[in-house]
Fold this protein.
Amino acid sequence: MKVKDKTVEKLLEKYKEISLLGDISAMLSWDLNVNLPANAIENRAEQSAYMAQLITDKWLDHDFKKLLTKANNIKKLKLEEVAVVRNLNYAAKFYHNAPKRVIVEFEETSSHAYVAWTEARKKNDFSIFSPHLSKMVKLNQIIAKHYGFKDNPYDALLDLHEPGLTTIEAKKMFDQLTPKLIELLKKIKKSKEYKQQSKNNLFSNEVYTRENQEQLCNFVLRKIGYDFETGRMDVSPHPFTTQLGSSDVRITNRYNMADFRESLSVATHEGGHALYEQGVKPEYSNTPLKGGASLGIHESQSRFWENMVGRSESFSKFLTPILHTLFNKSLDKTNSNVVYKLLNQVKPSLIRTEADEVTYNLHVAIRFEIERDLVNGQINVVDIPKIWSGKMVKYLGVTPDGDSNGCLQDVHWSSGPMGYFPTYTLGNLYSAQFANSMKKEIDIDSSIEKGELGTILSWLRTNIYTHGSLYLPPELVKKVTGEKLNPKYFVSYINSKYKKLYKL
Ligand code: MG
């Protein structure tokens, strides 16, 4: 990236080292999730902690700090230069405020916590993970204190994931959404269609081979435009996308032999994250403008491809003949209308990542409330399974059958700072608002039905992906949709889609 200002140019040189170290760190973490032999964990924890130390040193470097202070006082900077300085200030805030020993301790603790989480999940026993989580909560509280906040320590952790998001704002978002979703869910559960759908037994036997599921996922990923020359798909207990360099954007998946829908939605979801990364302007590589505008905007892209494309009526039409070929023994009698219903079956369930669009945000609301109360010291870690169950019953009407399918289901609490979950719901809201704007320019349904997804991808590239993190989320949303974030687009999308599907 070419810049005119000499100070910004020097900052970019310095940042490049941070970016490279970050990619190496991400590589270690990808390997931990995908490949690591059981006994190698001590080695990896030490290596990751050392990398965290090196990265922290770069952020704390005296010359770097001096340059950043100088850059903050320059009046005339170009748009990109302003964004570079702004993004550096935002990222540096964590390192300049949290003590180095806490950052390193966090990294060490999280490697061990990850292993404990895997074991606890396998053994269906929260008590194995509980002491590690207690440590993680304490570290989160320390980080929040040093990072700084106005009203609530949880604000600091939210800001680390979505610039400017506060506890009050997040609560407002969930308050606007959850009662409407609970009401819609109640109506759906009372419908004839719901009872009809619960009778299907297409997913009771392990008839969907991993090989065929992989074939389906590879096909769909190529269709949506995922570039396998700059990425790959592997297997991990919790699916994720990681960027190890501008031309190395990897995703992972997991396979349930009884239900092909899980790996399919993971492929479109993680594929959507990856398309964003693969679509950022190449000259932003290794600069503070790389990556997405925020986690919320990032999630809007995974949810767009997963739901607005992958779970649309037109995509079901496109996909049906392919499903017939791959899974002819079990799905040969399903027409596209049935496939559409199968892909959108509303079923209050225990697992967030497998949740339908109606119940998904209810899972996130539960995480938000528990995290907020943990960080505020209002609840204790040992009580989480009980609190979790209570909230699952209240919001979704289901009771977890154990810890694995309850509070242990997600990797997040073992791997990084808290405050991540609300970005999932933000992503859903953004995705509906972006889709509303896209539909004014493109007939997306007819493109999807023909399997011609290039026009959709190029719209997203031009309007969102290419900019990387040049714009802050509110600026980007305004630029693309003409207004600020407005939950009404998601509410209207979800109501009209599911009222039709369940004949309400
Ligand atoms: Mg995601």
About this structure: The radius of gyration is 22 Å. The chain has a mean pLDDT of 95. Residues 130 and 382 are 6 Å apart (CA to CA).
